Amino acid sequence: MKVVICGAGQVGFGIAEKLAAEGNDVSIIDRAPELIQSITETLDVRGFVGHGAHPDTLALAGAEQADMLIAVTLHDEVNMIACQVAHSLFNVPTKVSRIRAQSYLAPHWRDLFSREHLPIDVIISPEVEVGEMVLRRLALPGATDTVTFADGQVVVAGVYCDENCPIVDTPLRQLTELFPDLKALVIGIQRGERFFVPDSSDSMLVGDVAYFAADRDQVRRTLGIFGHEEAAASRVVIVGAGNIGFYVAREIEARQRSARVKVIETSRKRAIEVADELRRTVVLHGSALDEELLREADVADADTIVALTNSDEVNILACVMGQKLGAGRSLCLINNRGYPDLTRSLGISAYVNPRQITVSKVLQHVRRGRIRGVHSVQNGAAEIIEAEALETSPLVGKPLRELDLFDGVRIGAIYRGEEVIIPRGDTYIQPHDRIVMAAMADQVRKVEQMFRVSLEFF
Asked: Which residues lie closer than 8 Å to 198 by C-beta, 6 or more apart?
């Protein structure tokens, strides 16, 4: 596949890194020569210095032969015009655009991005995607990672196995015997720097992060089995009233009427704007690194302090200070890929990586076959995938124990009709089942093949 990417920032770099590693022909455009130099020296991609929406730059980058254009510059208008130019002049089949301003995404303007107006096939809104991830973490504080599949009926969550986890050193096959009615299955384990897809003889160890797929109604029970029975956050201090912080505060107001939220914002102008928009949230103006202001925000009584500013360093320090002053948990937004390992050593409960979330959203539309959802884990070491089985799929018609599944792939849940099925050896996959699985990066292409339409079908 030939892909042109506009924008060589952190998101553009992450997308290029993943696509290039899979053997795609990737061209990337940015106005900053230093970014283009850095990315071409690091990755097997072609770089072009120029404006991503200008026809001559797109032509140089090979837009005429491109299968997809992905516009992820910092400017919505540049991204939208790049998609329009790619459509009108180069007939690029698939256009993906990052759009941050929520005004463009308001429901009553939904026709704006139709083929007759601005022909954008896929819209990515990082603020919404990251905001929803934060809200899921607040609802399930025992999880370190949470993503939904199958119209929200299947949840895949990561959970830290500490010294109090009662099921460490227990082979996975024994968990099925211990909890026969539990609709959950471990599909991946992160052990230090290594992520792997386990088999039934593997056990979890103290310090692992286990990823399980579960019926949404049994997620809390599953977390409890891992020793995490934390209640959903109802007293929250949010650091940063930018687009993400404002979105989270507004949605908490709408979804949890009993919740108490306080927001700390350094910009007086922005603090006033947000205070006018929110109804029950208290907005404080000042620095979250000011201990007195944190005390004024009652951080000692907070279930969770959530740091969502544009500065990784401020987010990390605010979480550390908040927990030192008595906050029950902390959650911070981190862009720098070198910082995640630092957070646990500092006692920070969890972090959110916007780049990883955005890259996952893009991969969902890059994948061939009937791929409905993708979530990248451990910097692309593996993917959680939801795919629809077709009549011609080699998975259909045989019990799972007889299938020649590849090493590095583990099916965690099957969504059939309105039922979530946790697979066993005698389970049959039927046409149109939606399958949620973990796959190591080197097995993703084989997974795509299993869910592609076969010519023999026609």
From this structure: 172, 186, 187, 188, 189, 410
Q: Six-digit token pair at 37? A: 């130099």
311-to-2, 240, 274, 317, 335 alpha-carbon distances in Å: 34, 10, 19, 10, 8
Token pair belonging to 212: 């399980």
Six-digit token pair at 253?
């107001």
Q: CA-CA distances (angstroms) from residue 250 to 299, 308, 350, 372? A: 19, 14, 22, 29
Angle formed by the axes of helices 354-366 and 10-21, to 10°? Answer: 40
Q: What digits encode the pLDDT tens for the residues 210-248? A: 999 999 999 999 999 999 988 889 999 999 999 999 999
Query: pLDDT digit string (tens) for 82-92?
Result: 999 999 999 99
CA neighbours within 13 Å on the CB side: how many for 456? 6
* Per-residue DSSP letter, 310: S
How many angstroms separate the CA atoms of 435 and 429, rounded? 9
For residue range 331-342, list pLDDT tens digits in order: 999 988 778 778
Predicted TM-score of the model (pTM)? 0.82
